[in-house]
Amino acid sequence: MNSLKKRRFLIRLFVLTVLACVLLTAGWKLLNEGKTHKLEAGEKAPDFVLEDIQSGEEFKLSELKGKGVLVNFWATYCEPCKQEMPVFEEAAPTYEKQNVIFAAISADQSSLVINRFRDHYDLSFPLLKDNGNQVMEAYGVDALPATFFIRADGTLSRTVYGPLQTEKLEKYLDEIVP
Amino acid sequence: MRQCPVCKKEKQQSEECCSQCEEQQRNWDMRYDGAIRKSQQQKKTIIDTIWRFFSSVRNGMYILIVTLLATALGTILPQRAYIPPGTIPEEFYASQYGLFGRLYHYFRFDMLYSSWWYMTLLGLLGASILISSIDRFFPLYRALKKQPIKRHVSFLRHQKYIRELDVQAPALLVKEMTDKRYRVRQDGEDFLAEKNRFARWGPYVNHIGLLFILTAAFLRLFPFFYQDSFLWIRDEEIAVVPNTNQSLFIKNERFLVDTYNADDPKFREAIKLEGRTIPKSFTTDISIFQTEKHVAGDMADLDLLLQTQVGVNHPVKAAGYTIYQSGYQLNELSSLTFRAINEAGQAADITIDTKNPDTEYQLENGLRAVLVDYYPDYQLDGDKVITVSKFPRNPAFVLEITDGEHTESVFAALDEVVSETGSNRYNISAVDFETHHVTGLSVKRDRTLPVFLLGGIIFMIGLIQGLYWQHRRLWLHKQQDGTYLLAGHTNKHTSSFEKEADRMLDNYRKGGEY
């Protein structure tokens, strides 16, 4: 009789636990509904190939193995992006010597707009133009700006969706120095 | 004052027992053949308390009623998914439905079916259905599976249908029963005739169907089972379908819209009333591309899967997805043409592409233009010109035009040309433009439909099983004095059961003649 009671208790506990898990999963899924899949630190950074606006050369992430890469998504019409650009420009030459490449992928449609922006801010690092938002989609970016810090082995060290805290930039960059 | 021996309440002196308890004592609760449901025994732990809550049909009904009311509430105004694409929900509800709409939006009833509390209600309903079924099915199954043929006299005497009989040849009565498709079993001199026991499982089968339907609703939360994305694609552009792991691409070859003719007297009034052109039909010629191991940004590795046309109410199925035509934007500017007149009075045109404009232009009248800056969707922010998007909805250009001697800098848009020196020496003005359209496609995948269908079928089977058959039992017991006691029970439609039993007795008495 006692073992029967125990079994009944265990069955009830099991059924209720399963139900609670289903409900929690549903709740968690609902909280994240409508949001694109975000990348997380430790994941492999999706490969991409885009044309460098200035040089016209192909810029392929997977060819930069062995180097740290900072990938920034921006657009000329995005205000917070404009504030980040001079900060990147200031850091880029120093870190380039330490094998960290900067790449800024623009959501703009027109190369002219991007080139004018480059002239205005006097930027020296590669500016790329996204191809029909493909790379943005691959990185789960639905709002600009977004910044990704990629280690030399191609994994993500940090993902920043939204404006970067510029005072932390150097700390984040030091983490991806090979 | 004396106490009732059953409910322990004080009772009036004239009665032996209070009438309610007497009723209870006379007729046994036959739902589970007199067995007590396990959850109704004394509660012990928190698990048991929760179990008891969900096993209660009354609580289940409360949950069901609240769920139904909530579901109804969500149908009063259109859900957010069904408002015109591109509108801002807050403004839409306020402008269309006033204060009520504003409140409806404020309380998030416009997204009711995916709200956490609605999902919680469905979860509670599922728990109630599952637990109350488990709690009832197993004792009933056990009771019916192991039911003895010989029953205690008190059990038989508590049945609603009781007949005292003088039966000489029970075999003939049994034959009457088997003729009515009863399954008769014998134990000593007692008989148990039973038919349609499977009707008792109807409600449980029905509940399994409901659980399938709730499971399907749950599965919709997973992208593998359900995906719904909306794409804006400009003419001649390729877009990646989100959340497909970059495996599906759609190219808008050409978007076509046909509008009702505003000059047609049949439609003139209606179009004037609407205040805008009304589309008759719109379709998109699309190419669908599929890839494996796509490198984002690369266009060379796309394989053409299908070239087709998608129109309103004519969706296209491809690569496990269904593509619907569900919106459009008209008249984005694809190019602008400006006219400039030189000193000699000769006019010449410059056409500037809005997607990928050139930087330098040589005009036929000897003038040269340099595109200094470009704002695809310009707006004035104080005294500064900014672009609010990358789409050429309202493009503006900063041009420097020179004849070698005089250089003129102008800000040129479709509706205005402002000369920075104030002179507009070359009389620049916009003379022409070309437009392109944007198609709105909705790409969906729903793998939960078979689960919904299966649930619905099981639900109906359970319903039919439980409604159109009745579980009927007759006990024939030989008493000590040699007479027989016939007791009967059915789970529904007592009167037709009693008629059937009486007719069998009649037939027996007539010796099998009808």
From TrEMBL, chain A:
Residues 39-178 form the Thioredoxin domain. Gene3D superfamilies: Glutaredoxin. Its main location: other. GO terms for molecular function: antioxidant activity; oxidoreductase activity. PROSITE patterns: THIOREDOXIN_1 (PS00194), THIOREDOXIN_2 (PS51352). It comes from the Bacteria. GO terms for cellular component: cell envelope. The keyword Aminoacyl-tRNA synthetase does not apply. NCBIfam families: PRK03147.1. It is found in: Cell envelope. Keywords: Cytochrome c-type biogenesis, Disulfide bond, Redox-active center, Signal-anchor, Transmembrane. This is Peroxiredoxin. GO terms for biological process: cytochrome complex assembly. Pfam families: AhpC-TSA.
TrEMBL record, chain B:
It is found in: Membrane. GO terms for cellular component: membrane. Keywords: Cytochrome c-type biogenesis, Membrane, Transmembrane, Transmembrane helix. The chain crosses the membrane at residues 60-77, 116-138, 204-226, 449-469. One of its GO terms (biological process) is cytochrome complex assembly. Residues 58-501 form the ResB-like domain. It is a multi-pass membrane protein. InterPro entries: Cyt_c_bgen_Ccs1/CcsB/ResB, ResB-like_domain. The keyword Transcription regulation does not apply. Signal peptide: none annotated. This is Cytochrome c biogenesis protein. It comes from Terribacillus aidingensis. The lineage of its organism: Bacteria, Bacillati, Bacillota, Bacilli, Bacillales.
